[in-house]
Amino acid sequence: MSVVVDASVAAKWLLREPDSDRALMLLAEWRNGHLEGFAPGILAAEVANSLWRRVIRGLLSADFAERLFALFSRLEFPLLPVEDLVSAALELAVRYRHPVYDCLYVALALETRSEFVTADMRLVRALGSALPRVCLLHDWRS
Question: CATH class for domain 2-139?
Answer without folding.
Answer: alpha beta
